[in-house]
Amino acid sequence: MKNQKFYLFLFAWLLFGTMAVVSSCSKTEDTKPQVNADKTKLTAVIDSVTAIHNAAVEGTKPGTYSTGSKATFKTAIDLGTGVKNDAAATQAAVNTSVANLRRAAATFATSLIQEVSAANLVAHWKFAGNANDATANGNNGVLKTGPAGAAPKFPTPPADGTTLPMLTADRFGRASQAYEFAGGGYIEVPYKAALNPQALTLSVWCKRNDTNPDNYLVSLNRWTGYKFQLQGDNKPFLTVTTTSTTADRDADSGIVPVNVWTHVASSYVDGTMKFYINGALVKTWTNVTGAIKAIPEPVNLTIGQQLPKDVYNRAPKGGQAPDYFQYYSPAFFKGQMDDIRIYNRALTDAEVQSIYTIESTL
């Protein structure tokens, strides 16, 4: 982090200095060659941009630079170094070289891959050995066993499946970097109002190992809130309760294959619901209106289960129907999940594609 701040400072210094260099170039300097040019500033800029270049790493993750950007930057540095080493270089040429290097540094800075909409990222569960939230928001998950059997006579609580989610290899084969869900096990996240935004985007990597009409990915109070699942045709399926209605929509032609790691995402904002498979937009619905409502009572968010197990078959406290929390049948995910994100706005198509690009490579 200290190194990152230092290089950001260098970028700022280089950019600020551009105006000073431009203003220092007078007509006299342009028309009267000076063989004894002052190269102090050029030397300092070359040293600074070289340090930035050498410290930069190319890749596809936030904090790295896009592939090929370093080579372009190095070409500009080499040109500046050539002017520095040229004993016949005029002051005008030196000043122009400084300005060019600063512009090259500014261009290179734009190739830095940023986290997608970091200010709107409510939670990001990377499952890197645990269920903690990777953001500073502290939405850490807790591993729980959950119901997996037939429904008892209401209001008797359902039987516990006694199975916790288990760490497993992720889509790159790295051990303990994803979770396997089976037997009703799920991850429970304590309720916060921030987890119940008026608009949202849900992004999940999943590998289903079964066809199940209630393959729940993420749920906040099921349909009186929002729920994201795979339905019986293995299509991503989003339900939201808005100020106008409760709406269920699916990805239409988008199918999640069995035993294949697949990126699925869905977004909702008043008037528009979208579905994405592996970064590509597959369906847009425009017949749902209203902002997402706040849930009637605090209920913890669940990953891999429809509701928290201690909520099933209890009496509601927010004015819902007496049987609102009734347990009907098993509604847990069967398979593996990784890299789950919740945003408090509807991301653009390009932003969802960026998440897929960032997360589909090591």
From TrEMBL:
<dbReference type="InterPro" id="IPR013320">
    <property type="entry name" value="ConA-like_dom_sf"/>
</dbReference>
<feature type="signal peptide">
    <location>
        <begin position="1"/>
        <end position="20"/>
    </location>
</feature>
<feature type="domain" description="LamG-like jellyroll fold">
    <location>
        <begin position="198"/>
        <end position="350"/>
    </location>
</feature>
<dbReference type="InterPro" id="IPR006558">
    <property type="entry name" value="LamG-like"/>
</dbReference>
<protein>
    <submittedName>
        <fullName>LamG domain protein jellyroll fold domain protein</fullName>
    </submittedName>
</protein>
<keyword id="KW-1015">Disulfide bond</keyword>
<keyword id="KW-0732">Signal</keyword>
<dbReference type="GO" id="GO:0005975">
    <property type="term" value="P:carbohydrate metabolic process"/>
</dbReference>
<dbReference type="GO" id="GO:0004553">
    <property type="term" value="F:hydrolase activity, hydrolyzing O-glycosyl compounds"/>
</dbReference>
<dbReference type="Pfam" id="PF13385">
    <property type="entry name" value="Laminin_G_3"/>
</dbReference>
